[in-house]
Amino acid sequence: MLVIVTKDYEEMSKVAAKKVAALIRKKPNCVLGLATGSTPLGLYRELIRLHKEEGLDFSKVTTFNLDEYVGLPPEHPQSYHYFMWENFFKHINIDRRFVFIPHGMADDIEEHCRWYEEQIAKAGGIDLQILGIGANGHIAFNEPGSSLGSRTRIKTLTEQTRKDNARFFGSIDQVPKYAITMGIGTIMDAREILLLASGKAKAHAIKITVEGPITAMVPATIVQMHPRATIIADEEAASELSGKYEG
Prior knowledge:
Blueprint: E1 2-6, H1 9-26, E2 31-34, H2 41-54, E3 62-65, E4 67-69, H3 80-87, E5 99-100, H4 109-122, E6 128-131, E7 153-156, H5 159-169, E8 178-181, H6 184-188, E9 192-197, H7 203-211, E10 229-234
Parallel strand pairs: 1-10, 2-3, 2-6, 3-5, 6-9, 9-10
Antiparallel strand pairs: 4-8, 7-8
């Protein structure tokens, strides 16, 4: 596992974008696993800049998003469909046919989850999976206690996660109680993992993820087992690490 410590969020985003862009240039039809939330926004902004100013070509790229709320239609402002199109996809030359995001309004969620796994396999697997990390060490919506071998499935959101997300919805009552998420086993199947972390609030989670024991109670610790995992953390997020890492 490679740990890279950057000065700040902006540098973290640029280092991550450079890595993603290098893969796209090397393999134009690569498969990317994408995340939502505030952490990857800088990465997406830099990739948009590289597309507009340097011609980075997304026309053959396939993407799979980690998760989506159950019960929110794609046009809902808080859906991850809406997030991805507003913050990334509509600004680049991605082909809609190659964009996959779990469908929170699916009639049969379990069947949809099986279909999602099949589409990943059909695409040849994920070349590079981008991850954020929760303060409790969760990745995607795999909360503490999630099976380390889990696949794409429906998950009940914890009360804390719903409270944390209530600021986006207005009140906790409006926050969905369930989400579709890639499983930890699905994430670990990616050929390469890129986990991003920024800010003091993520410092303890990064310390445990990098230096702690592997445990289902901190799902992100499983990345220690991946043969090609890179963690890029800014100085604040890396502030509790005891070892010396690349900077």
